[in-house]
Every structure is written in C-alpha cells, then in structure tokens.
Amino acid sequence: MKIFSRLTLLLLSGALVCQQARAQYLHPKITQKSVTIHSAVILPAKVEITKESAKGSEMMLAESEQASNTVFDAVGQALQDKKIIILKSPFDNQPGAMDDNRKYTLANIQARYDALLPKLLNKSKDVKKGRFSLGDEVMVLNVDKSADVLIFVRGQGRVFTKGKTAFTLLNPFSADFPFALVTVGIVDAHTGEVLAFTKPVAASKVLKNPKSLQKLLTKSLKKLPASS
C-alpha cells in the first residue's frame, strides 16, 4: 500500500477544494448494457488509517481494521441499493477461518489488484476504454458460480493531531490536509476485466460517520446501472 499512499498524495493535491470529490468510470460493456451485474462477492477490504503529528506519521492498526469493516459494510449496502445481490464470500476476516491454501489464493489475487491499482488511480479514464484486467486467474478464487463480479475495496485516511492541525493552519503554503480516499474496483468474476472503478474523496471525518460514508459511497456508484 506504500505506492498507493504516494500516488494518493499526488492525486489529492487539489481534490479537496470542495469538501468532497467523486469520480466513477464504467467499462463500455456496462454503459452499453451488454453486461448487467446481478450478483457480487466482496473481497476483504483494506483501509489504512495514519495519524499525522508534528513528529511524523503513525499507522493506526485498530482504527484501520475498524475502518476496513465499516467501509466493507457501506459498499455492500450501496450495491444492495442497486438491487445487486451480495453473495456469501468464502473469505472471512476472522482468524482461522481459512486454510493456508485459500489464504494464499486470496493474497495472490489481492496482490494482483494492488499492482494494478496505481494505473487505475492515475489513468482511471482508461477504464472507459476497457484497458484494465486481472485476467481469468480470478476464477481460482472459486467463489459462488452465480457471482457476476468481484468487489475490491481499498482506502486510505489521514487524521491530524491538534498540534499538526494548528501547524497546518498557521502555514498558508502547506499542502497537508486530512482526507479519506476509498476506491472500489468492480471486476468480472470470470474474465477479470475491470468493469467499474470509483475513487471518492472526502474529509477524513467521514470514516467516523456511517451515514456520511454511506452517502459518499452511494453517490460514487450512482452511474452504475441497477440490476434489472
């Protein structure tokens, strides 16, 4: 996620001029309605929260885990609002829920997605040209056969201490700011094609407000057609 972090800071350099910025990109198969999403499996979300102080940054492990679960639930609700059925995932965040082989398979596919993520962030418009895919290796996940898509959720949030906030306010030339970025990748469960990608940005406090987070993610998926 370190590459994700560096790219995020570049991506967000002007994104919070307004309180929230949203972007969503759909594959031609979705916009032309040659593919309709009826069901999905959401893979374990990865959201990293860091605390920024005058001394530097510190990973907040407990908060990251909580945010991952909160965002996971919010994405699921946003998709259900689109009448998309969320199927039971064979992958569980609970320790000991998976055998070693399944853990390896999941980690491998998650890593493939993470390797593609920088391109999805920097060249998001290419999703509209159908240029991104994880390949049909996604089928090794062996999820429910009725699943149309796999959902990959990534996020990053920065929170400031009072001292860091005061320093930033006193420095008019500072580009530092607290933020939350949540990306949602919707991947064809059979071909691996990236069918949709969203990257809504908001103030980091949205991660502590379930209603605001739900609203943000719902709007970020607004263009995704509802299941018929």
Q: Which key features would you list for this structure?
A:
228 residues, alpha/beta, nine-stranded mixed β-sheet, 6 helices, 9 strands
Description:
- With 228 residues, this protein is of the alpha/beta class.
- The chain has one domain.
- Helix content is 34%, strand content 22%.
- The chain has helices at residues 2-11, 28-31, 61-80, 100-122, 162-170, 210-220, and strands at 24-26, 39-42, 46-53, 56-59, 85-86, 149-160, 179-188, 194-198, 201-202.
- Strands 1, 2, 3, 4, 5, 6, 7, 8 and 9 form a nine-stranded mixed β-sheet that branches.
- Strand 3 and strand 4 form a beta hairpin.
- The chain is globular.
- The N and C termini lie far apart (36 Å).
- The model is unreliable at 9-21 (pLDDT under 50).
Radius of gyration: 18 Å
Q: Which structural class should the secondary elements be placed in? A: alpha/beta
Number of domains: 1
**H and E string:** HEHEEEHEHEHEEEH
Separation of the first and last Cα atoms: 36 Å
- Count of runs of 4 or more consecutive helical residues: 6
Number of strands: 9
Principal-axis shape: globular
Q: How are the SSEs ordered, and which strands pair?
A:
Layout: H1 2-11, E1 24-26, H2 28-31, E2 39-42, E3 46-53, E4 56-59, H3 61-80, E5 85-86, H4 100-122, E6 149-160, H5 162-170, E7 179-188, E8 194-198, E9 201-202, H6 210-220
Parallel strand pairs: 2-5, 2-6, 3-6
Antiparallel strand pairs: 1-8, 3-4, 6-7, 7-8, 7-9
Helix pairs in contact: 1-4, 3-6
